[in-house]
Amino acid sequence: METPRDIPVRITSATVNAERRITPSWSIAQLKDKLELITGIPNASQRLTLQHATDQEVVIEADDEDQMQVGRFVQTAYTEIKVTYKTGAAAPKIADVPKWVMPTEVYSARPSTVLAYKKAHQVGRFDPAAPEIREQKVAQMWKEVEERGITANARCCISGTRHGTIRYVGLVPELDGPGPWVGIELDEPTGKNDGSLNGTHYFDAKPSTGVFVREKRVEVGRFGMLLEEDLGSDLEEL
Asked: Can you tell me the distance from the alpha carbon of 194 to that of 94, in angstroms, rounded to the nearest whole number?
């Protein structure tokens, strides 16, 4: 008995455009199981349509999809099979998709990981000299704060573009990285906070005028303060 030859087809969806070969003797249910692996759309939620060059659309469906063969619908090579969600079905939200997270102890025990490489080659925090390097880096940052004249209430410019007044110089545990941060109240509402981070208050500032930056971005000088009349219509457009 001759086995039906596989037929090359194009599989398309909102996220997929790929060429695959299907076997005409597959049932529609079998095809949907395989398409779920390609498109991510659950087989029960799939709506399959054949897209012909004439723009004619043929729905691939049957009362008994476990018995109806795909070859009944797909007979021409390179026909497009479009996979969409059925009416009433919707793509699941990312937050609702079950996820598997590898336990830390399992990952730590694996030999061929980035963590294992860092441990073996003493990279980053696994470098025996890491604590000393960190201390030197922090000391250099504080030295630069002093050399740049970064002190509370001094006028400054950030990266040559935004003007403001320094309101805080010190540690900010809520932000990544060791060493000092410079809290600045900007003249214009182009900041990210009001001087507080995650409920911790560091300095007073109007909403969207507070920002925290590293010392290397701060230039202290006699930078004039913008008055409300200077801001004018710009504020009205925000």
From this structure: 32
Please state, as a whole number, how many other Cβ atoms lie within 10 Å of the Cβ of residue 82.
16
pLDDT higher than threshold 90 for residue 1: no
136, 132, 208, 148: which is closest to 182 by C-alpha? 148
Q: What is the DSSP letter of 83?
A: E
Residue with tokens 């109806």: 68
Dihedral angle computed from the Cα positions of residues 119, 120, 124 and 130, in that order, rounded to the nearest 10 degrees? 90
Q: Which two tokens stand for residue 146?
A: 């002093």
Backbone angles phi, psi at 46, to 5 degrees: -80, 140
User: In 71-227, which ranges are E strands?
Assistant: 79-85, 155-158, 162-170, 181-186, 196-197, 200-201, 210-213, 218-220
Average pLDDT over every residue of 56-65: 91
Give the pLDDT of residue 160.
87
Put residue 64 in one of left, alpha, beta given phi > 0 → left and psi -120 to 50 → alpha: beta
pLDDT digits (tens, 9 = 90+) for 62-88: 999 999 999 999 888 889 999 999 887
Report residue 55 as tokens. 């723009």
For 85-103, what is the mean pLDDT?
A: 79
SS (H, E, C) 177-205: CCCCEEEEEECCCCCCECCEECCEECCCC
Name the token pair of 99: 């996820």
Mean pLDDT of 121-132: 89
Take residue 77 and report the two structure tokens written for it: 């090579």
